[in-house]
Amino acid sequence: MLALLLLACATDADYDGFTAKDDCDDSDPYTYPGAPDDPADGIDADCDGKDPDHAFVGGWEVETFTANYSSFALLVPGSEEGELEIGADMLVTADISAMLDPDLVGGTFPIDLALAGDASPLAGPAALDIYLDGEAFGEDVFMDMACAVTEDDTLECLGNLKALDAGLNAAATFTRQ
Predict the structure, then answer these.
(1) Tens of pLDDT along 142-163?
(2) Residue-by-residue DSSP string for 27-91
(3) Where do the domains of the chain lie?
(4) Is CATH 1.10.246 the classification given to domain 58-176?
(5) 76-86, pLDDT tens digit by residue?
(6) Whole-model pTM over 0.85
(7) CA-based nearest residue to 130, from 106, 94, 100, 164
(8) Distance (Å, rounded) from C-alpha 107 to C-alpha 141?
């Protein structure tokens, strides 16, 4: 009887090299201690007790933010500041401030964008599309950007910003807060 009990304890039902004693799901050969664990898929594949978040989830601080119309840069370089917050629920908020180029508008003109929207993960654990909208200058503003987390843990984004009845090419770099 003892031999039968020991044999039952040492059974590896899914043949992944881990017995039911150590394997958190002995019916799934892709779930075992130390297994690759895709973020936010609802599966704790590595048996550590949690499903990891995507690499882009969290708070990000604006490092650079540019908006161009054709070949004309509209923002004063170095005037940008603000933050971007990406939740595990894929809800996104952004508060970005910058100065419009005084040569284009005839004086100092700050812009403040308070935007909210959502993110859609792309193929790979560190890439996403962000769509944000809000109001500025008394009109609706939209931003649609493709972003990726780089090896040095910055978030690089390229896309479009619709503001002041113009479609602008936008680019942003964010550093983790």
Answers:
(1) 999 999 999 999 999 999 999 8
(2) T-TT-STT----TTSS--TTSSSSPPPPTT-EEEEEEEEEEEETTEE-B-TT--EEEEEE-TTSE
(3) 1-52, 58-176
(4) no
(5) 999 999 999 99
(6) no
(7) 94
(8) 22
